[in-house]
Design goal:
The complex is a heterodimer. Chain A is built from 13 helices and no strands. Chain A is mostly helical. In chain A, α4 packs across α7 and α12 packs antiparallel against α13. The termini of chain A are far apart. By secondary structure, chain B is of the alpha/beta class. In chain B, strands 3, 6, 7, 8, 9, 10 and 11 form a 7-stranded mixed β-sheet that branches. In chain B, α13 packs across α14. The longest helix of chain B is centred in the N-terminal third of the chain and has 34 residues. The chains are: A mainly alpha, B alpha/beta. Chains A and B meet through α12 of A and α3, α4, α12 and α19 of B.
């Protein structure tokens, strides 16, 4: 290689390097543009969330430490609302019901959903019809579902009366929504009736993602249906199951509509939930500041649950 | 290509500039248009637009038509220059929507509520206009009943106009009573004797149930507070002279609980919690239940059930349930109207209130057609048109007499503050099913009421009940 050629080659190298830099600059610019375009697309949703969720969240934190009535100015009261909450029997009663709700929904509909999904996955004929039938209650408005079940379980007009006509008196004097010992269970029953079909469809969709060769291998190894479910299906839908457990935990703290429509939290607070109590406190008693503190407490509880579930997940991973 | 590239930018800039110019022109035009609207009159003949949010009862086309017929059309005829804009809302959310809108400095010009407690809170927050001078200039005191004038004030200023009033009474199945030779009880002894006779015949003494409206138990709390403790004691508790832990209130709650335990209200406590409104009306109309304690708002609903059952009903004042306690009419304000302080047409809004108060012909037509509540205005028997249900006519003539003689009492949703009323709604059923003791209930009620007093949330306590002393 001569000097000139060296120079030339050096020049070429410089040009090549320049080209690379230009390309790199071009690539960087393109990347930046892509980022900006992405941000632009996200912006409406982000702005909306900031306004609709962020704004009220911040104002809720502020009002939680005031005596705001929902009208006019709010006065800072320090930890007064916290002290009051700690002594408020109505709050602990309602929170206890929320946890009963959570335990119920983390078990009963999950088991029903898994069983339903596994059974349906083995059905060849009419599978779509069953899926639709299971899913329909989830699509019906909660107030409609509630009205249907309130009529069915009405001791003076519903199933009890129909059974009486054929000489069956099992439901005489059974007040599903009027007996404080039955009201919460009855509300959860109706809520579950609408909800478990959703889990069936969710889990069923997850099972379709499981490699069929795993089932074949299990069958070759002589696994029966239960063993197939336990060793293949369940591990195969684990992410979906964890997602469902997380969401149910959070939804249980937010439950409102069925209790509101069926019992209003009664009788005598026997089916009260924190969301109902917050609503009554803010708009009935005009104690929006105290209601905001209840809401803040529930948000913190949700946060704790998310952290615990996250830690459990990480530990398992 | 470069040529196109170079000319592209100026072209898009030009388009952008044009778009900005067009947008600016539109904005300027809009501003100009809005600014060119005529300013509403502040005196004399009202004009301009006036907004009114309402929730029809029933919430269907019949309810809307009735509202338009009696609350809108006659006003529009009388004041054709006012553009009265109505917005239909759901009865369950109207209060919350109004509250949020007022807090934002918006909301309708005419602020309507289902009672007086919200108006007090709105007034305290500065959302309502002071209409004292307008009321004085138009002599409202000549028309409104004295107690209604008192409750329309907050901090000495008139901020609302009660536009519907009711009372708690004892409804009874007249056909059943006539058949058995019974008369409505006037004392505790008579009531308990009659309840025993009804039980012996397999009749539930009182139709009752709060499944559809859990807050309905407070009607009974109001009844027993007025009929056992008496209106004078209630007055003293509301004005802070005595506490709600006074034994007279414990006696009231315990007697109510005792009647529930006997199954006199709805058959049993659990049945009471399960019974719906149509079921209790049907029981009363069919004679399965003999009496029913409720408000006179029931005149709008009960006639249909009795018509279907082929029976008749009537009402009597609530019996006195303790020695020395007079027969009393606990008063309830079923609705109130105010003027939004942010309203740009206060004159038209005030005129609407004045028209509403003084067009008694329109009011009685509404009472006659649907059994609606009358306004708390001074009336004579001769004022009531002959087509008004005689039971309703008697209600208002008796109420007018009671207002004059001071034989009126207090209802929890009209005379208590929001916090203490909500406490009563949330916790009375707990006393009935023994999950809360009477003393703990009254102690907490007293505490909630003191909070209401501290926050100035208690409506003005009218003085007529004092005659019970």
């Amino acid at each position: 290689m001569t000097m000139s050629s060296t120079l030339l080659s050096g020049q070429s190298a410089v040009e090549a390097a320049g080209e690379t830099t230009r390309l790199a600059r071009g690539g960087g610019r393109a990347r930046r543009r892509r980022v900006w375009v992405g941000l632009l697309f996200l912006a409406p949703a982000l702005i909306l969330n900031l306004l609709v969720v962020g704004g009220p969240s911040i104002s809720n934190i502020y009002y939680a430490f005031t005596d705001w009535s929902g009208f006019g100015p709010a006065h800072f009261t320090g930890l007064d609302n916290a002290v009051r909450l700690f002594q408020d029997q109505s709050f602990w009663n309602a929170l206890g019901h929320n946890f009963i709700y959570m335990v119920f929904f983390l078990t009963v509909p999950i088991v029903m959903g898994l069983f339903g999904a596994f059974s349906l996955s083995r059905v060849r004929r009419g599978a779509t019809l069953f899926r639709i039938l299971f899913f329909i209650p989830y699509l019906i408005a909660s107030v409609v579902n509630a009205a249907i079940w309130k009529n069915i379980l009405d001791p003076q007009a519903g199933l009890a009366v129909a059974l009486n006509k054929v000489g069956i008196h099992w439901l005489d004097n059974v007040y599903f929504f009027g007996d404080p010992n039955l009201s919460l269970g009855s509300v959860m029953f109706v809520d579950n009736w609408h909800f478990w079909g959703f889990l069936v469809v969710l889990f069923l969709a997850a099972t379709t993602g499981i490699d069929s060769s795993r089932y074949e291998a299990a069958r070759i190894d002589g696994a029966n249906a239960l063993q197939e479910f336990w060793h293949v299906t369940l591990p195969g839908i684990r992410p979906t199951l964890l997602f469902a457990l997380t969401m149910i935990s959070l939804w249980s703290l937010l439950a409102f509509d069925y209790a509101y429509a069926l019992t209003g939290g009664g009788p005598a607070g026997s089916s009260d939930l924190v969301s109902l109590l917050v609503n009554r406190t803010a708009f009935g008693a005009n104690e929006a500041g105290y209601a905001a503190f209840m809401g803040l407490t529930m948000s913190l509880l949700s946060g704790v649950i998310l952290i615990v579930l996250g830690l459990l997940r990480r530990k398992e991973d | 290509m470069p040529h196109k590239f170079r000319t592209g930018k100026p072209a898009s800039r030009a388009r952008l500039a044009k778009a900005v110019a067009v947008a600016a022109a539109v904005a300027v035009t809009l501003v100009a248009c809005s600014g060119s609207q005529p300013t509403a009159n502040t005196t004399g003949e009202p004009n301009g637009s006036l907004s009114y949010w309402y929730a029809p009862i029933p919430a269907d086309s019949t309810g809307v038509a009735t509202f338009m017929k009696y609350a809108i059309t006659p006003f529009e005829k009388k004041y054709p220059k006012v553009d009265l804009q109505t917005v239909q809302k759901n009865i369950n959310t109207l209060g919350q929507q109004t509250q949020v809108a007022l807090a934002a400095g918006k909301g309708p010009d005419l602020v309507g509520t289902g009672g007086i407690a919200s108006q007090v809170a709105y007034a305290k927050a500065g959302y309502l206009a002071d209409i004292s001078s307008f009321a004085d200039a138009n002599n409202w005191s000549d028309t409104l009943l004295p107690w209604a004038q008192e409750v329309s004030k907050v901090d000495g200023k008139i901020v609302s106009m009660p536009n519907a009033y009711e009372t708690l009474v004892l409804f009874y199945n007249k056909s059943l009573f006539e058949k058995n030779g019974w008369t409505p009880p006037t004392t505790r002894q008579e009531l308990e004797s009659l309840a025993g006779k009804m039980e012996a015949k397999g009749i539930t003494p009182f139709a009752a149930g709060n499944s559809d409206y859990p807050a309905g138990t407070e009607w009974l709390v109001s009844t027993f507070f007025n009929d056992v403790a008496g209106p004078a004691k209630v007055h003293d508790a509301l004005t802070g002279k005595i506490d709600f832990t006074d034994p007279a209130f414990a006696d009231s709650i315990n007697l109510m609980k005792d009647y529930f335990k006997k199954g006199w209200f709805g058959g049993s406590i659990n049945k009471y919690f399960s019974t719906t409104d149509p079921q209790k009306y049907t029981q009363l109309a069919s004679g399965k239940a003999g009496m029913y304690i409720s408000g006179t708002w029931e005149f709008q609903t009960m006639p249909d059930y009795f018509k279907k059952a082929g029976t008749d009903f009537d009402w009597a004042p609530l019996p006195s349930l303790a020695d020395g306690v007079p027969v009393t009419y606990p008063l309830s304000i079923g609705g109130a109207l105010s003027v939004n302080k942010s309203s740009k047409n206060q004159h038209a809004a005030e005129t609407y209130l004045d028209w509403s108060l003084k067009d008694t012909k329109n009011m009685w037509a509404q009472v006659a057609e649907i059994g609606a509540d009358a306004m708390p205005v001074k009336i004579k028997e001769s004022d009531i048109p002959s087509n008004v249900d005689p039971r309703i006519a008697r209600e208002y003539t008796e109420l007018a007499k009671a207002s004059d003689s001071g034989a009126v009492g207090y209802t929890t949703w009209t005379s208590w503050g929001g916090q203490s009323d909500q406490y009563i709604i949330d916790n009375t059923d707990k006393v009935l099913n023994d999950s809360l003791s009477t003393s703990a209930y009254l102690k907490a009620l007293s505490s909630a009421f003191k909070d209401d007093v501290k926050k100035s949330n208690v409506p003005t306590v009218y003085s007529t009940g004092k005659s019970g002393e």
